[in-house]
Design goal:
406 residues; Beta Polymerase, domain 2; Hydrophobic Seed Protein; 4 domains; 7-stranded mixed sheet; two-stranded antiparallel ribbon; transferase
Amino acid sequence: MPSKANLVDIFSNPPPWRKWPETQAVLDALINEGGAVRFVGGCVRDALLGLATDDIDIATDLLPGTVIQGLERAGITALPTGLDHGTITAVLNKRHFEITTLRVDVVSHGRHAEIAFTQHWERDAERRDFTFNALYLDPAGELVDPVGGLADLAVRHVRFIGNAEDRIREDRLRVLRYFRFYARFGANNPDEHAVRACAKAARQLGQLSVERVQKELFLLLDSENPGPALELMDDTGVLAAIIDGPADKGRLKSLLSLDVPSDGLLRFAALLGGDKERALHLATKLRFSNKQKDRLAVMCAGDVVADMPASTRKEALYKIGKAGFLEQTLLLWASLGPNHKLDAYLEEASCWTAPEFPVTGQDLLSRGIGEGEKLGRMLKEMESRWIASGFRRTKAELLSDFLPDA
């Protein structure tokens, strides 16, 4: 990420998305309806930081119906994805643009606000969350900064627009968004007003949609270095409110220190101390997918332990698979500490190709074993003996062991 002195001059060096022909087509469609338009939010912020993005937001003073009319006249698909809040999605050649009418929040409910449309750009900026998310870029390439977002971005300072408590009262999800943006853009300079307001709102986070909580949690955990933000969340009581109890910050810090990639789900398991029961309980509460829960169940099962002989490691690899073995190894390594080397485990897993069990159900059926529980039990017993032999016993040997008279 660029340093303060290296914010990109996006007037002289427009971001790639500004040069897309689809971008100009959408702008032309809106301008031809008599509208004023500006890019806004994350696409502008990320362009200043030299970061790539495909999420392009456009603000306009046109009403939603006029936006739809202009897009359709230009042959651009207009989807009313957020019509109640003034948002239309323009789709052209697989490019998507979120176009939102300038608006103000009239009544806030802690998550969704009743809005009114406005013609005032400053009022639209004031109802946004953080200063660097209220930076606008006009079609000519001029930056518009109504709330001081550029200065905050330059020093990596995540600051609410106006009064932090007011912004959180409007939308409690902003508590989690603060820590997520701090993880991604902060520079160990937390805003004291923001932190105090987040701590004050910690007990109210149970009212949020669990799907939104899950999304914000993973966006934070998947950031390059979530550690400082999680420390801050823990200090404010926000983390305990989200994960229903204490966090194993030591194990997560150890995991992050390893020179091995990890993703949000593995970091989530580390944050919960590798506790399978707790991880699955929270995963159910936060509505993780079945695939995520299945993966958690394997990575927290504890099959991989310290000082395993090579033969036992191979058995574990066969039982839980390469991915499960690698993730259990990383959780174990994080628990033991980075100095406890488990490179041999990782090397063995990376080279692992699972052997194929040589006996099939058809082999037993052809030798007079009927379908049903007996057949299944015999296959499992044969497989166990095959594994115990180091995967060396052949089909003929196993059949002779179990069916000597067949």
